[in-house]
Structure formats: C-alpha cells, structure tokens
Amino acid sequence: MLDANEGPTEAQFEFITFSAGNQSFCLEIMQIREIRRWTPVTKLPHTPDDVLGVMNLRGAVIPIFDLSARFGLGETPDNERNVVIVAAAGGTTIGLLVESVSEILSVAKSSIQETPDMKSDAARQAIVGVISVGESMVRVVNLDAVLDQEGGVAA
Amino acid sequence: MSRNSIRDTFFEECEELLEALVEGLSSMEQDPDDMNVVNAVFRAVHSIKGGAGAFALDRLVSFAHTFETVMDKVRSQDLKVTEELMHLFHRSGDQLADLVEAARDEREPNAESEAAILKELDSYLGEADKDDSFSFDAVTLDFDAAPAEVDAPEDSSEEDAALRRFRIHFKPSAALYANGHEPLLLFDALAELGELRAVADLSELPEFDAFDPNGAVMSWTLQLETSEPETVLHEIFEFVESLCELDIREEDGAAPPALSDDPPDLPGLAPLAPRETGSPSAAAEAAEARSDARGGEARGPRPTLRVDLERVDRLINTVGELIINQAMISQRIEELELPAVAHLTNELEAYKLLARDIQEGVMAIRAQPVKPLFQRMSRIVREAAEATGKKARLVTVGDSTEVDKTVIERLADPLTHMVRNAVDHGLEKSDARAAAGKEAIGTIRLSASHRSGSVFIEIADDGAGLNRARILEKAIEKGLVLPEAELSESEIDNLLFLPGFSTASEVSNLSGRGVGMDVVKNAVAALGGRVSITSTPGSGTTFTIVLPLTLAVMDGFVISVADQTMVIPIASIIETIRPGQRDLHAVGTKGMVILVRGAYVPVVDVAFNLGLAPGRKEAGEGVLLLVSTESQGLTALRVEAIHDQRQVVIKSLESNYVAIPGVSAATILGDGKIALILDPEEVVKLQPAAPYFPAITPPKLELHHA
C-alpha cells in the first residue's frame, strides 16, 4: 500500500480525518460504515478503560472503544462534538469514539509516508503511515491493528 | 444445476430415506406382517440404490441390492421375519448409512463389517436366489441408471426359472400424463421382461361431446409372462405408482384366461349413457381406490421445502429487529403522552401481536422434531448392546417434539454418550436381569416433551440403578471428595458429573473414552440447559436434560444492577426474596448469608462481582434472586430491583467483541439500549474465594485442602 506507484493515473486514496487525544488521525474511507452522534453506551464489566461499552447499531451489538485511551492518550473528555466512527474490518464491526471529525482528505498514494521509525508504543503499533497536510501531520490508523489488540486487551 | 449440487441433493435425500428406513425397521419390529411398512423399507433401500447407481457408487449399489433382495423375499413372504433377521436388517441399515456417509465424504467405507453383513444377508438368499442375484446384479444396475432400458441378458439368465404370469391392471390418472409419463414406454419396458399382451379398456370413454382432452379415461389390462419377480414389475411402475391405479397380480399358471387380441369393442352409445350419468359414483369409487392406494402404498411425506439455513437465520434476525423496533415504537408513543386516543393503542396492540406471530412462525421454521436424533440413538443402543454382550432395546416417546435445530445438532454427542452409558453402565447383563426377575432385554427409554416453556429430554434405563457406595468409593479414591465427607444420595449421584470421574472399573472400549458425564453436562450447559439425575436402586436411572425452547429468545427478568439495566434468565431463578434486615447475617468482613427455610445461603452481590461501582442502594436493600449453581449450590444473587419480566431477543456479544465473564449475551430493550444478559453460574464463579456455607460442599475446594 505504501509502495510509491508513480504514474499519470496514480491511485487516489480518500481518508476521513478526525482528532483524538488532540492528535490528528485518519481512516480510509472504505473502512468506515457511518459516523454517529455519541449516545450513552451500556458498560461492560471486566473490561479495560478504553472499552466504553456496547451500543445498538440497528440490532447489532457493537463494542465502542475510546480511541484516545486505546492509544494511551488519555480518556476522551465529554464534549458535544464527540462522535462515534463505526468501522468494519475483518468481519467485525466496531465503534471508535473520537473528539471530532474534520474533513475528507484525498491524497495520492505517493504522499503517504511510512511511519517514521520510533521507539514502539501503543499508538505507533496502529499507525501505518503519515500524511503531511499543510503544517500538520495526519496519522493513518491501521484498523486491523486496533482490532487485533482488542482481544488481547480485553482478555 | 451442477453435477455437484445434484449429488448434494442425492445425499440429502439419502438422509431422509435412511430416516424412513430406520423408522420403517422399528415399526417392522412391532408388526412384521404389515406389508405397507415392509414396502416402505424396501422402497427406501431401493431409492438409495437407484440414486447411487446414477452416481456410479458401485459399492453402495451392490450392498443396497443385496439388502433389497433379502427385503424382497420378506415382501414376497418367502422369508419369515425373525428376531435374528430383524437384527440383521437393523445392522444392514446401519451399514447402508455408513456406506452413504463414506460415499458422501469420498472415503473408504469399513469393508470388514460390510463383508460380514453381506455374508449374512447372502445366507438368507437361497442358492437359486444367489445365482440369480449375481447375474441379476449388473442388470439391475443398468436398470437403475436408465429405468426404461432393460437389458436383454436378463431373459437369457432367467431361462431356467419358471415363467410366471402376471395380470396387471393399469389405470393412469390425469396427473400421470400431466407429469409427462407415457404408458407406451412403460409397456415397452414390460415387454422386455417377457411376453406382453396389452388390452385397452375404453369402456369409460365418454361421448365425443363430453370428451375432456386433459382427462384420463383409458385403462389397460396387461398380461405378462416373465421369469422376473414381481418386484421388477413394480420397479417399472415406480415413478408412476402414485399417479395411477395399479394392480399387479400373479396368475395361476395352470389356467390362464388369455386376453384376447381382438380390438376392444367400443361400447355402444346405449351402455355408455347410463355409465356416464353414473360417473360421479364411479369417480368416487376411483377416488376411493386411489386414496386407498395412497394410504397404503404411496404414503409419501408431506410436501416440504428445502431452504438454506442461512436464509432462515437472516429472517430470524430481521424479525428480532422487528420485535425490538415494535417495542421502541411503543415506548416512544408512551413517552409522547398522547391523550388516550384508543385507535392508536389498538393499532399498536395489533402490531405487537402480529410481530409476535411472525416471530413464532419464523422460530417454528428452525424447530425440528427430535425424531431423527432419537432414531440415531437406536443404532447406538444396538451397537452398545452388541459390544457389551447385553440385550437392549430402545423405546422412544414424544419424538415429534420440536426443538431448535441447533439444539438438536449440539445434543447429538451428549445424547450418544448418555445412551451408550445407559447400556454400558446402566443395564445389567441378561443373567443378572433374570436373577433380579426382570425381562432379559433391557429397555432404554428416550422421551422428549415440552413442559412450561422448556424441552425435557429423558434418558431412562431399567437397569440396576446407581451403585452409590461404589461411586462414593471411586470419588474418594480419586481425591474428588474427602473420605469423611457426608454426602446425601443426590449429592453422590451428582458426583458423576465431576470432571475425571468414571465408574467403569475396567475401561471398556465403549464408554471409557476419557470423556465423562462432565462433558455431557458442559455441552448441555452451553445450550442453556441443565442435566439432572435420579436413580432408584434395582429399577434404573434417569437422566433429565432440560433445555430452553429456543436459543434466540429467552424469558428473563429485567433487573437493575449498579444503575444498569440487565436481564437474568428466568429459568435459572428458583425464587425471589425481598430480605428483611433480620434474615441477613454477615460472615467475615464482606461475606453475607441469608437464612432460607432453615438453610444458610451465601449472598452474592452481582454489582461487586461484575466489578461495577455499587448502586445507590444500601446493603440489605434490593432483591435477592435465589439460583442454584453447580459450583456452590444454592446462592442468592443480590440485585437492586426487578423491573419487568419479558421475552428478550438474544444477541451475541462475541460476534463483534470477546466474551465477557459473567455475561452470556446481550439484548436490546425497548428504548433501543443494550442490556447484558447475566449468566448466574459465571457471576457466582467471579466471586473471589470467601468463606461460605455452601449447600453442597464443592468437592474441588476440598481437594485443595486435602
């Protein structure tokens, strides 16, 4: 995905950018099912702090994670603008609580840079690349990695 | 339709045919003279053979053929049904099932048992039959692959056999033509068997004006001289048997009233007219004859529809949504606090009823009778009896009881195990039975019934009952209980369910497979059910499995725990108690017990065990739900309040997340919020170890002390 594929008809990727823990992240648009307003969830016993609970998504019970807490950036403070990004990967559907959703980002594949090699931490595990947008940097979230953690964290 | 899907269909049909076979065999056992049953069994074997021929499953075909040939001798009353023969038929049925399975999975069947049974079957075939059957074998094969083409060699091989004369009365119904059958082809097929004369009976031919081109008025009388058995004639008519009146009779060879070859006299108008006016009665007669024929010969199953299970499940899910949606709408409308407009409430009520109806109907699609499951057990009983040298029979009661398909599937293994156990450990040997004044043949009784929203399945044997002294001895020996432990009878019985417990002093190749009743118990528990055991020395042991009617909907109490709404299955609750301060006693720093009719029962705070911040209520308030748990017997679960009792749709937590300890699933309430469904057993287990006075001493704990 990160291979530079130069050419006149270079593939464009669309991302939805959002902020969590005061950092800017994005998810590939194809992975996102919908974006919902935050509604109170049903808490689950014996789960880590980043698992907020479960929510009813048209009859399906989906877990909601606090993305900021999951990346070790602290709990997302209550705010009117908080939204839940419902995303699907590998047959499971999850919800991610984020502070706010910003915009749709359309970038060429070549402008996605590999994540700089840093000392590993929770957040870095789940970041597949970064995109430079003007002054700021947007982190591309690897949903699969977020999901993979889930079992281990909750068990 | 690809060849593969046709093949799949064949195997699906095989399963049904095998069921019919087993069913037929067991009714044959009761009444060996009932030719309808014998015919049904024959037909089942024959149809399997026919289908197998089309797929070139030669082994299956040849086995089915031998089986069928012996069956045919019973049918033609050349062979008397003895107990021994019945036993062989059962085993042949089992073998046939094995062969079908092997063919389906494309693996090698067990040649040894096949050869053994074939040999026994052959022994029932006289020398003549055998010779015939060998040359006959290949021919029948061809015949099955292409029913209309019967090979010539047949006649040559049968030359020595006596010619028999059959008179066949054949009256097709309109449906026969409508289905595209052609009598001429049938006659051609008959003609290949021997010398055929056919005379058409045109007596019912109506006047030209009244002629209905779609009707069927002609009938034929056929005379066939052949050396073939009657079966072969039936085979030719096999596909039209239910579409015509057919009467095949063997005539005395001595005085053959030959049919004339003269063209039939067309009935004159005069005799025709009264016949026509009298036709209603004739038609009624014909109808009667037909219904007789249907009642006897072609008692086919009710029409059914094969549907992909996934589609049904999708429908069930959607209907679950509908129920939730209905509850939400009701709640919203209530919230609006509209003036009492009767119309809306009425409509809403009707909507609710309709939604329930749809749900029940949809759930019924998944429900299936336990019959096939029970029938499978007859084989287990047979095999187990054989392996242990005991005599046993299976009696089934209530096999039309319907249970969710998943339950049936997941019950097969535990039930097999229990039935095996019942034969292996439950029943005594014949001589011991005789000594006890019992019938030499032991009885395993399998029964199913619906009682108060649950399914009860009982496995009862009429054996010696549990040997409690030995069970206790074994349990002590294995360190499962302390030697000085005083256990009640039912507690001893329940030791059987402990992991690693097996009473068989010698490991038999039957039950001693390293799995015990604990596996059975877990499997049943996984289905939301429970197993219990009762035993009377000298007269047998009964295991009772209680299961929820369906896995998709459950009756539950809506409760609140730590300000959260949750649901607890009603089935697990024995009683609810609103405790007075005097009834509760503290034990240690956190422990609490309550006096329930003279016994101290530990109190478990659900919120605490789930790791939730306790609600606003003080200790002593709230409601206690008395549940019976496996790990520590009677336990009182403390919750804040009970709000409602309702049917909830079960939603899996695991499909999108992992399993949560103490929570079995989730459901969606009327307000669209999710409520967790508690698993009392697990909730209690979450309890950090604390000194209690359990009603039943948990033997596992004692092991630690020892």
From TrEMBL, chain A:
Residue ranges of every copy of the CheW-like domain listed in the record: 12-152
Annotated membrane-spanning segments are none
Q: Which InterPro entries match?
A: CheW, CheW-like_dom_sf, CheW-lke_dom
Q: Name one Pfam family in it.
A: CheW
Quick one: a GO cellular component term? cytosol
What domain of life does the UniProt record list for this protein's source? Bacteria
Task: Supply the PANTHER family for this chain.
Answer: CHEMOTAXIS PROTEIN CHEW, CHEMOTAXIS SENSOR HISTIDINE KINASE-RELATED
Supply the name of the protein: Purine-binding chemotaxis protein CheW
What species does this protein belong to? Alloyangia pacifica
Automatic annotation (TrEMBL), chain B:
- EC no.? 2.7.13.3
In this chain the HPt domain maps to: 1-103
Cleaved signal peptide residues: none
GO BP terms in the entry: chemotaxis
What is the enzyme's class at the highest EC level? transferase
For this protein, what reaction is catalysed?
Answer: ATP + protein L-histidine = ADP + protein N-phospho-L-histidine
User: This protein is called what?
Assistant: Chemotaxis protein CheA
Q: Where is the organism placed in the taxonomic lineage, from the top?
A: Bacteria, Pseudomonadati, Pseudomonadota, Alphaproteobacteria, Rhodobacterales
- Composition bias type Low complexity, residue spans: 254-286
> Residues bearing Phosphohistidine?
46
Which parts of the sequence belong to the CheW-like domain? 553-689
GO terms (molecular function) for this protein are: ATP binding; phosphorelay sensor kinase activity
Q: Which Gene3D superfamilies match?
A: Histidine kinase CheA-like, homodimeric domain, Histidine kinase-like ATPase, C-terminal domain, HPT domain, SH3 Domains
A Pfam family this chain is assigned to: H-kinase_dim
- Family matches, as InterPro entries: Bact_Chemotaxis_CheA, CheA-like_dim, CheA-like_homodim_sf, CheW-like_dom_sf, CheW-lke_dom, HATPase_C_sf, HATPase_dom, His_kinase_dom
Sum up the protein's function in the record's words. Answer: Involved in the transmission of sensory signals from the chemoreceptors to the flagellar motors. CheA is autophosphorylated; it can transfer its phosphate group to either CheB or CheY.
Keywords from the named record: ATP-binding, Chemotaxis, Kinase, Nucleotide-binding, Phosphoprotein, Transferase, Two-component regulatory system
Tell me the domain of life. Answer: Bacteria
Bias type Basic and acidic residues, positions: 287-304
Name the PANTHER family on file.
CHEMOTAXIS PROTEIN CHEA, SENSOR HISTIDINE KINASE CHEA
The record, for SMART domains, names: CheW, H-kinase_dim, HATPase_c, HPT
Q: Where is this region: Disordered?
A: 253-304
GO cellular component, alphabetical, reads: cytoplasm
All copies of the Histidine kinase domain together span 293-551
